[in-house]
Amino acid sequence: MNMQNRITDVFRNQFGSQPLLFRSPGRVNIIGEHTDYNEGFVLPAAIDKYIYIAIAPRTDKEIHLYSQDFREGCVFSLDNALSPVAAGWPNYILGVVDQLQKKGCPLSGFNLVIDGDVPIGAGLSSSAAVECATAFALNHLFSLQLDRMEMVKLAQQAEHTFAGVRCGIMDQFASMFGKKGHAIKLDCRSLEYEYVPLDLKGYKIVLLNTNVKHNLASTEYNTRREQCEQGVAWVKEHHPEVKSLRDITLSMLEQLVLPKDELIYRRCKFIVEENLRLQLACEDLNRGDLIALGSKMFRTHEGLSKEYEVSCKELDFLVDAVKNNPAVPGARMMGGGFGGCTINLVREDAIEGLVDNLRHSYEDQTGLKLTYYIADIEDGSGLA
Ligand code: GAF
């Protein structure tokens, strides 16, 4: 049974009526990690894994939610102020409702079922996909006339306020603005963007899931953000025109941050280099030079692991294991870090063999199962 039929059945069983269906995709990021909240560039793309929402209006002010994954439902009222709840999954929906209320959008009650095939905690942005699908569905249901950019921004705010993660804008942007066959080169300062054709000529994007659940809210993500802000503050004392790491050069860091704190210097240096690397990687992609692009991905991984320190031994193991494989021009950890997936460029005819080999060595080494997905690049949020 396809996802549309499944979620419709669940909705009918729960609420006894016919719903409208919406979906928002997860994302990959080719290169440009932890650069979004530093006003830098990112290069994400929406993938063929989705969060689905089935929804119908109610005649009262109640919100009835049901999660197919958790086989669990809950009820809230729009007459009471919403706040985060202990059971994590409703927060991504409630956070969006709360943002819409704060914007003064006229909402009334609704029944909602959530389902999907974006693996949770795998670094593929299931949370952003829930937020975007919720925003998209409510926008449609209540004719709120919000454009995609407004929905991206309020979805990001929902993550800040109801999930406690001060995330950048990349994940929500990719989920809302994705385009089939293209990556999005996004300037996270101006929010200008261009679509870059992802012509991988005989190669595929393969995601290897460590099955180590990352927990972005686990202070480390927010700590990285604070460390970057500290570096900027030190440079700003001498260069008041500077607004973010985007405006800072390596020599400024050497002169003004290194003498104060070596750790903060390393964090900032990675971000400055990653931004430069992304620009070059886009040129590689335009020339169709996957070897050059891939070597930059490996370099990004090294930086994320040793300088930014957001990797983990399982991610490092998977990247090391493919490093000298001629069928894999590039690989790296992806997303916030501390678990989740590696993104790999793999020659199509080598995928099965690679995964078979890795499965055994990964399990021997870590005691964890290795799962994998071949990601096709698809459009962003819409009707399902
Ligand atoms: C997470 C965040 F949500 C993004 O905003 C981004 O910072 C990413 O980690 C790291 O590049 O996915």
Automatic annotation (TrEMBL):
Its EC number is 2.7.1.6. Mg(2+) binds at residues 127, 159. Pathway: Carbohydrate metabolism; galactose metabolism. Substrate binds at residues 33-36, 221. ATP binds at residues 67, 121-127. Residues 91-179 form the GHMP kinase N-terminal domain. Residues 283-363 form the GHMP kinase C-terminal domain. It catalyses: alpha-D-galactose + ATP = alpha-D-galactose 1-phosphate + ADP + H(+). The record marks 27 as: Transition state stabilizer. Its main location: cytoplasm. The keyword Cytoplasm applies. It is found in: Cytoplasm. Residues 11-57 form the Galactokinase N-terminal domain. Keywords: ATP-binding, Carbohydrate metabolism, Cytoplasm, Galactose metabolism, Kinase, Magnesium, Metal-binding, Nucleotide-binding, Transferase. InterPro entries: Galactokinase (IPR000705), Galactokinase_bac (IPR022963), Galactokinase_CS (IPR019741), GalKase_N (IPR019539), GHMP_kinase_C_dom (IPR013750), GHMP_kinase_C_sf (IPR036554), GHMP_kinase_N_dom (IPR006204), GHMP_knse_ATP-bd_CS (IPR006203). The active site is at 171 (proton acceptor). The keyword Protein transport does not apply. It is an enzyme of class 2 (transferase). It comes from the Bacteria. Belongs to the GHMP kinase family. GalK subfamily. Catalyzes the transfer of the gamma-phosphate of ATP to D-galactose to form alpha-D-galactose-1-phosphate (Gal-1-P). This is Galactokinase. It comes from Flavihumibacter stibioxidans.
